[in-house]
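Re: [help] complex structure
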Amino acid sequence: MAALTPISRTPVSFYVPVVAAAGAVAGLFVGTAQGSSLLGVVLGALFMALIALVATQVVKAETPSRWGIVVLLGIAGFILGGFVAGIIGALFGWFFGWFSFWLYEGRYRAKVAPYLTPGQVLWHFTFRVICGAILIFLITPILVVMPLSFNAEDFFTFTPEMLRFDPEGYSLKHYRDFFTNADWQQALANSVKIAPVATLLSVSFGTLAAIGLSQPHVPFRRAIMAILISPMIVPLIISAAGMYFFYSRVGLQGTYIGVVLAHAALGIPFVIITVTATLVGFDNSLTRAAANMGAGPVRTFFKVQMPLILPGVISGGLFAFITSFDEVVVVLFVGSAGQKTLPWQMFTGLREQISPTILAVATILVVVSIALLTVVELLRRRSERLRGMSPG
Amino acid sequence: MKLAKTLMASTALTVAAGMVAADGHMANEMTIVSWGGAYSNSQQQAYHNPYMEKTGVTIINDESSAEAVAKLRAMNEAGNVTWDVVDVVAADAIRLCDEGLAMEIDADEQLAAAPDGTPASEDFGDLLVSDCFIPQIVYSTTFGYRTDMVGDTPPTSVCAVFDTEAYPGKRALEKRPINNMEWALLCDGVAKDDVYDVLETEEGQQQALDKLATIKDDVIWWSAGADTPQLLADGEVVMGSTYNGRLFSVIEEQKQPVAMLWDAQVFDLDGWIIPTGLSDERKARALDYIMFATDTQRLADQAKYISYGPARASSAPLVGQHADLGIDMAPHMPTDPENAKNTFLYNYEFWADYRDDIDAKFQAWLAQ
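Output below.
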């Protein structure tokens, strides 16, 4: 983006306090890690203000002073906490060098509209910082799990060897355990057998229900809709207990079909909601046109309606699949040990022995989910492109 | 019509797959419920594998012992008992027996005699604490401490837990009154023989809670057996209570800088029950399994995989070396004379009478 506003250098009274405030935040983290938050805040603020002042007023040349800050903080980190802390310190240094000059040269003003007041400029950047913080908050727990799954020890702990990036501290043994342990393999097999079938049932029934309920002449539409969606609203433990007693009476408790049906019931609301949403944009005169040309209702459905609502059906199916694949409460009630799924195995594993094998499985599942979503997205783009190229 | 055909074909396949899977549920399977982890593994090696080899029965493991009482109640209510043999602690066995959810066992008729002909009832002796309960192991709840966090004077007494000046740092204690109340009174000057007399009274209960209150800010409360080993390995706590087998695994198998504090360890029993409401065929098989799995040799075999003491007197001399590590297991048993100088036995009668009351007080105190 080209510069929108001419820029000029800012006064010391502006940028030094701002850098000091950022230094205080960084100092809070470092200080907490070292044992004293308050000291960290004060020292961080003072230290960073001093660095910004020296770099801009004494050294003046931008490139050497920024590199100087990187090296300086890198060494400081190394002295405080070894190799990894050194790298973190260097990253801090890079950030503060850039931040100081960004403020000092007034570059922050270049890419926002010239008519904004200082308050609006502040909000412009605060908003971005908040968004970044939320993203970090959401993703950190997942990112922390991944390196721990390569732990050479049997605990959820970053060992000193791991922090030193010593290859001794890393191992694939938890992955090996997952692929060789009969319990985990049985659980994986069960999940793979249950989830797709439950998804297929949810998608078939959910799509039919959504289409039926979108017909204006169906009586009690809202009431029926509410009942069908109730598995999503009622607390899961209530549904699970109810299913347990009902399925026990009819002989489905502890059977493969029982678990599949229970998961299908949980998945149906997702399909109904997504398909109903796509049906809102569906033009009913198309089905009448098809009927006019002699197509029966079934043929009309598969040739005209289905292709148009397919995106809704697929995303509903994805939700139903993930529900079944992730579900632990209902399967604990409705299943027996013979239907132990991956989440069940993870749940008991976490309670009885905190083994990083669980983290290895979690990492594998995250990678598989990302791959799955990427494939679906690529297919969607491809079909859009093909549709765009085909005549009419 | 291609889409329609695909959909129909896959639906047909689904139904067919479902049928096959349902038929695959053979009658020759039994579900055995236990605690999971290293403990289930020791049972798998010592009992399940030889039994499956001998009889051709397939054993399915269900790791639900922690909620066995609740689940058995629900199964009984629903008239659909899916478990064949269940591993529970003695206190749970007593409750299940009282509620009629576990079958009564005649030890001399239905359990194997010792190799020298001693009847089972004498071989198990006092450990047969309930008519429904077949003891399997003696385990203890005791403390482990970080050897690198206690300075030059490692703790030798359980009262080190309450001494935050000599041993600063967090402690891990179980989130329930049992054991904690006893230890608190013991370290508050109550003689060991008087502990339960004092604990019967309101003042005594308050005294125990007051003693616990002196370290409340330094306690991390655990609820699963795996918590304390993790906290010790992390160095989050300087000492913590857990089951002795878990500590054995931390010390000998994981090689963590942790040592045992056996003082005032509390013995408890773990064993089998057979649920009521099984069909005759399943009941016969469960009894056959129990007869096999609790004989003298099998109980001794289990000690090769985990450091819990066999419940039969006749098994003790047969305890050998750890299957993988090759170290002698006897010194790691809670019942070893060196370790058992000062012990408690879980007081089933006292806790059966006072548990609900003291539990409520303890939880209220925790929430303060």
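The two ends of chain B are 68 Å apart (CA to CA).
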